[in-house]
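Work Package 4 report. The design task specified in the project plan requires that, given a folded chain encoded as structure tokens, an amino acid be chosen for each position. We show below one input record used in the internal validation round.
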């Protein structure tokens, strides 16, 4: 871009969403469901999506061979961020199996990924919900004591978006640079890391696939 760039963030996802809709940022790198909210409610433009998609997994203890999600009945499901697309897709997967949050089980929110494993070990919850990348990033002893019970869905990777007030020519230039980035020397180095394979444009159909999560995401982001 040949200009200085300041990188900022917020203390939590609800604050991040509010600042996005207020127009506090020029661009955002955001979970896709928050991006769709910004697009529908605030007119933000999506430039590209980080590939590959993100597997949403249900995790339990290794010494519990029972994979039936009905074990959640009357108990808690542990997660770190109720507004995440991984969680929203997982809740939808459970609802399709006649397990509805608030009716059949409760959602227990913990501060971080390590806390998810602690809750599982304590027996406070039979299952935790997270991304497969989060699971694989944990130390091997922690992974060995647990197991992936089910891969519930693969959700869209993070979106890169621009403020609706950004001039069209500038937005288009940034989009061209982003989509060319994977073929650059810097891009090849960046995408050599595990869990990154490239950037892609987002189609109208892919945008609309997120619409079933809009209301649940707005509700999870509410103060």
């Amino acid at each position: 871009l040949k200009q200085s760039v300041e990188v900022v963030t917020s203390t939590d996802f609800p604050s991040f969403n509010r600042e996005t809709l207020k127009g506090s940022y020029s661009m955002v790198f955001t979970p896709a469901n928050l991006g769709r909210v910004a697009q529908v409610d605030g007119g933000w433009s999506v430039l590209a999506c980080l590939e590959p998609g993100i597997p949403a997994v249900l995790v339990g203890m290794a010494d519990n061979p029972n994979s039936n999600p009905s074990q959640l009945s009357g108990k808690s499901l542990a997660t770190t961020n109720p507004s995440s697309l991984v969680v929203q897709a997982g809740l939808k997967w459970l609802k399709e199996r006649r397990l509805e949050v608030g009716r059949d089980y409760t959602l227990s929110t913990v501060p971080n990924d390590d806390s998810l494993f602690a809750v599982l070990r304590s027996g406070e919850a039979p299952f935790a919900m997270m991304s497969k990348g989060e699971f694989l990033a944990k130390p091997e002893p922690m992974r060995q004591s647990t197991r992936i019970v089910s891969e519930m869905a693969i959700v869209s990777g993070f979106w890169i978006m621009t403020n609706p007030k950004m001039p069209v020519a500038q937005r288009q230039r940034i989009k061209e640079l982003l989509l060319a980035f994977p073929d650059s020397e810097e891009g090849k180095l960046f995408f050599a890391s595990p869990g990154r394979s490239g950037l892609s444009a987002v189609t109208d159909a892919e945008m609309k696939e997120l619409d079933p999560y809009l209301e649940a995401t707005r509700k999870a982001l509410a103060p």
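The longest helix spans residues 168-180. Validation will be extended to a larger panel in the next phase.
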